[in-house]
User: Fold these one by one.
Assistant:
Number 1:
Amino acid sequence: MKTRPPFLLSGLFLAALLGWACGKNGGSPTSPPPPPTSNVTSSNVILAMFLGEGPLRPASGLTCDTSGSWRGYPRGSRLHIRLSTALSGAERSNVEGFLAGLSGLIGGAYELAIETTNEENPIPGFLEVTATSLSNPQIDAFCNPGAGGCAKFTFQAPSILASSRTASRHGLGGNVHNHELGHGILGLCHLDGAQMPDALMATPNSAATSNFNSLERQVIQAVMRSGLSAGASRADFERAGLVQPAGTSGASSSPGLGAPGAVDAPPILRPNRRERGGAAERERQ
């Protein structure tokens, strides 16, 4: 097993922001979900998942303040995904299958290196994403009371992630880990579970979804192929042909997917010494 002392950034911008709350619970819905609405278009899915806005943004408080730009890691980053041995064998298998599929979706935009740590609740270092399972009291303290899981972040610059730390409540299974890793690896926001109940990034959700649905996969692949990188604004997404221009109806048609992007990737900032610290984003359902 590989263990390494965690380190974060010094001399870089580490934003101390409390962000959107999320998590997936393990309950089952008491009635069938409503059918998808006309808002479910590729443009609106991208707006909600990457920018935290538009008609598919959840109506609840579990939203995502991205300040109008895609929050994520710089394009070309090699991300170390550190899985704690606190994950059960079933959870580990589920997560590894999810990560294998994600690697195919993101193509060359990022490289994912999966590692193991015996730390129960590891603190990630620069360009690291951690995942662990915690007991009920631990998850209530680490996330929020009642949360199924959460993701916490540090930033190296506005909208540019430095690290992500994800956790799920023991007993909820690997599906919640996959949801949280969607936040932690790609910086994704939530989709409205009332309109897209089968989406991995939906909230509320019964935690029955183990992977992205077909439309989520389609838009993630389109954004990864577009050339856009973390920090891209809505205007950049519009110029890339990925979302409808502001003020137009996203329900009538969907933009062409996979159009070339038009923004430069921000530089990858390097740490100059090791230290602990950082900011948190909390998730709750």
Number 2:
Amino acid sequence: MLAINETCNIDCQKAGCNWSVAYAMAGFVMILTAVNAILLVVGGFFYRSRMIGIFCHSCLTLFSLISVIMTYNYRFRDQGKLAAMSTMSSRNITDTEYDPNWTYEDDGKLITKLLWAQGITLILCLLTSNLGCCVSKKNNLIGSQLSARPSERNQLL
């Protein structure tokens, strides 16, 4: 609390821990990643959707990295640590009534779990998007190249 009082002015204190921004960014990235996964599945049948999905996958990997960094920053800065220790209710039932079973401490634990899930998803995205770059077999041709020129297929094989 002393560090917050020394470094954070009144406007900063009124802003709070901004965990809602971390929730929104992480949710937005995860929803876009799910939509992109569907686009890539459709890309198994249609070339254009596959290319769009591959491009979007690269962009979403960057957005996911930004989201992980931002979530970590909001959760583990001084305001986030202080909020995670609070046993005050944080969930609204109505406009004037709070749920006594859900506290800021529970929010802190949930954000930490979501941060881990996001980090694992980011690592999987990095591995799956760059796995093809690591293959170094001779005459390793992509299946679509072979099917594009059936007359040359026998010569290449």
Number 3:
Amino acid sequence: MHKKGGWALWVSIALAVVLFLGLFLYFALSGPDYGRYYKALKDSGQIQDPAEGMSLEEAAAAFDERFVYYLLFSIEAYNLHNPPLSQDKPRILLLVGDKIFNAAIDSGKIIVGGGDITDEDVIIRTSTTEAVKMIKDRAYVTKSFENGGSSIELIAPKSTLFGKGYLKLYESINGKSITGSVIEIYLS
């Protein structure tokens, strides 16, 4: 009878671990969806394309934080989130031509600043012309990354990127998946 009770204890512990990992993966993958909120802001005119009405050259010359914000908005970076049980906010370093920008995502809010940061999760490199093309045409984003006009460098460990929701963002802008290797990290 003692062996039977010990077996039940180990099965219970195993089920608790599987449940915990399952919930962790669910919350890490699903994260919040601020799409409706941002769509309403855009529809009401509170978010506007800063390149609207400008030529490619004019927009590239005027490129600033507003353009970075709109680019991050258009690729739905607002859906990045803190990993479960953490206060570690998603941070992006953007090198646009000779300008340096940084962004943090805090509960769906995109906060853009100028200058370098040291704790970035990813680095996005592009030219001002490529960035403006991506702002003017969302479908061009993947093309820019495919043809080498833009690049994304993963700095944080894949498990951190996974926990912050970068998988969907990475796949949408790069056309490639990092899912397999991230899941292997959690399963090993």
Number 4:
Amino acid sequence: MKAKRIYDFRGFEGPDASLEISLFEYGLAWKCANKRKQEYIFVYGIRASDKGEYDRFAYSTLSLADWKATVNEPWFKAESVGNYFERSAETLVKGFPESLHEGVIYHGTENIFGTCYHEGFAIV
């Protein structure tokens, strides 16, 4: 897949105020795709370089309804995740899409977004 330019992701937000840091260090950024459905496009890191920075990425689309369902799954253990981040399980849902980052930290991208069956794309 052809590399994407960082400016292709204008309007995306992430766990850091800097889009570059959000993508390359945290491996996550999002943008609202459908306000009415509270649906977001997530770009997430699937591989890190020897330097520890993400260098391959994939896309996924999740809505607030999807996130609620995930948080309420028995395997997610919302109370444990909430305790780990010193917040209640309810704030994991209410804080979407920002709180999805906490789910990724706790469970990993594969458990949150599913398995990525391609090599992803680079961002330059």
